[in-house]
Write a structure and sequence with these properties.
This protein is an alpha/beta fold and 530 residues long. It has 14 helices and 19 strands. It starts with 14 loop residues before the first strand and ends in a 10-residue tail after the last helix. Helix 5 (159-168) packs parallel to helix 6 (191-204) and helix 6 (191-204) packs antiparallel against helix 13. 33% of the residues lie in helices and 22% in strands. The structure holds 6-O-phosphono-beta-D-glucopyranose (BG6).
């Protein structure tokens, strides 16, 4: 969550008027399909953080917008002993229902009547039989067909156990309804484990039943990358190596590891952000236009990008990757501890919280264009953006006055916050005969979209209910991204040979200076426009 985009409740179906028209501007209406098919959602890990912070708020917002099916219930599953009523109370506290308006509290109360809980020991097959009976009973009570979604919101170490037990108890079978399984990231921790997990899943579930979540794909601005590129004529002809000098993709957060050290110590920034979110942004930025805007056509094109990513030369890692870990510092005027003083982090930990990497995509469109990817925890500012730096003009007729100072054109796709798009170009300033300066054209979503927009989790949950795979990662996508990253991870984590440096940076800074040198070697520098 955490989008700054205006989100208000609309009436029944979300219908957003985007541009109100005169004779030139074409009015556009966007319709989000209401769900017609009743279904149930079973959340494994129902007392966990993800359920409280993301899933229930997203489902509640969908309910507020009348986007959940008319007949729908949520069955929370977890190890903790709890009654239905206790589960509802726990979620009401997490949602801060007491401070809601009367209307919102009314919606919550109705929503909460569809919340149930079932205790389950993940290893115990007997408990899955109990779960199955409970599901049948609830389906009968709510007059539902057997359309079921199983959402794995547990620590990833338990995925395999849950999948096997669901399968062996017959819960993956689609008899008189649909069965879907949603799997949160991380999907494996390297190529081997990702392949194994795919095999486990496919023992019981067909690929079309599987929804691998990458919540970045649900962000409006991330979805807009393809619209911006392929619904306009003027950008696509210059979207290639002839005109683009390089691309920078930054995902920076002010947050540290928070209370997730148990997971993060095993993952680090490369598994946590690169294998999924960063590579997805890269693929949307670089892919070819699919013939039709259908899930598999889009995913085919993304996979082609992943396959074209050039392997990083392991004997020259330092020319391609810089890693760092935050030390103490200050964020928004507040002292914050260094990573190694965070609860649950091992002293002397080498887990990176910063990475900057350079990639090349070996195909006709992109050969020789560097893509710099950077992800930072504890930066002074939250910002995710894609900066597209165009080449300088080929002949400088203003050289006499300007020297080599004319800045290139730049397009910035501001993913979050302050979502929008900027174009930087040169204009003549009034006054002296030759007087150029860079100016910016700025489109900010907030100025246009005051009505309803869906948060990333709302979008992906809704699409899963609709059975639309567009914003989910396919099996081959996961395999390809791990294929690129795994040799790098092995080289970095290898206990043998010279260890790749993990550079300390102050919390609240831009990350280690070595990351600047990564670009300076190519005559470039990081740009942060927002
Ligand atoms: C998650 C990562 O997938 O994405 C977190 O596990 C990270 O470490 C988060 O903080 C960032 O998401 P967003 O939507 O806040 O940019």
């Amino acid at each position: 969550m955490g989008s700054n985009m205006g989100r208000k409740r609309s009436g029944a179906n979300l219908v957003t008027k985007v541009v109100s028209g005169d004779s030139f501007w074409r009015p556009e209406f966007c319709r989000i399909e209401p769900i017609t098919e009743p279904c149930s959602l079973v959340i494994f890990g129902a007392s966990g953080d993800l359920t409280k912070r993301k899933l229930i708020p997203a489902l509640y917002n969908l309910a507020c917008n009348k986007l959940t099916p008319k007949r729908f219930f949520i069955l929370g599953v977890g190890r903790t002993e709890m009654s239905d009523e206790e589960f509802r109370k726990m979620l009401a506290v997490a949602m801060n229902v007491r401070s809601m308006t009367k209307t919102d509290r009314g919606i919550w109360e109705k929503f909460a009547r569809g919340l149930y809980y079932c205790r389950l020991d993940y290893d115990d097959t007997g408990d899955y039989k109990t779960l199955s009976q409970r599901l049948y009973a609830l389906e009968r009570k709510n007059d539902l067909k057997r359309n079921r979604i199983f959402y794995l919101a547990t620590p990833p170490g338990i995925y395999k156990t849950i999948i096997n037990n669901l399968g062996s108890c017959g819960l993956s079978e689609e008899e008189d309804g649909r069965v879907r399984i949603v799997i949160e990231k991380p999907f494996g921790k390297d190529l081997t484990t990702a392949r194994q997990l795919n095999e486990e899943v496919h023992r019981y579930f067909k690929e079309e039943q599987v929804f691998r979540i990458d919540h970045y794909l649900g962000k409006e601005t991330v979805q807009d990358i393809l619209m911006f590129r392929f619904a306009n004529t003027i950008f696509e002809p210059i979207w290639n190596r002839r005109y683009i000098d390089h691309v920078q993709i930054t995902a920076a957060e002010t947050l540290g590891v928070e209370n997730r050290a148990g997971y993060y110590e095993q993952a680090g920034v490369l598994r946590d952000m690169f294998q999924n979110h960063m590579f997805q942004l890269l693929s949307l930025m670089a892919m070819e236009p699919p013939v039709v805007f259908e899930a598999d056509d889009v995913r085919d094109e993304k996979v082609k990008v992943f396959k074209s990513m050039k392997s990083i030369p392991l004997d020259r890692l330092e020319d391609f990757i810089v890693l760092g870990q935050y030390g103490r510092g200050e964020i928004e005027g507040r002292e914050v501890p260094g990573y190694q003083s965070e609860p649950g982090v091992a002293k002397g930990s080498r887990t990176p919280t910063f990475a900057a990497m350079k990639f090349f995509i070996d195909n006709w469109r992109w050969k020789g264009v560097p893509f710099y990817l950077r992800s930072v925890k504890r930066m002074h500012q939250r910002l995710t953006e894609i900066v597209i730096m165009f080449k300088s003009v080929p002949h400088l007729m203003f050289h006499e006055v300007m020297g080599d100072e004319i800045g290139p054109n730049v397009i910035v796709l501001r993913i979050q916050p302050n979502e929008g798009i900027q174009l930087i170009f040169q204009v003549k300033l009034p006054g002296s005969k030759v007087c150029l300066r860079s100016v910016m054209m700025d489109f900010t979503y907030r100025d246009f979209y005051q009505e309803a927009s869906l948060d990333a989790y709302e979008r992906v949950l809704l699409d899963c209910m609709l059975g639309d795979h567009m914003l989910f990662v396919r099996e081959d996508g996961v395999v390809c991204t791990w294929s690129t990253l795994t040799p790098v991870l092995e080289a970095i984590e290898s206990r043998k040979g010279r260890r790749h440096p993990i550079r300390r940076y102050r919390a609240g800074s831009w990350g280690p200076q070595a990351a600047d040198r990564l670009l300076e070697r190519d005559g470039n520098k990081w740009i942060a426009i927002s």
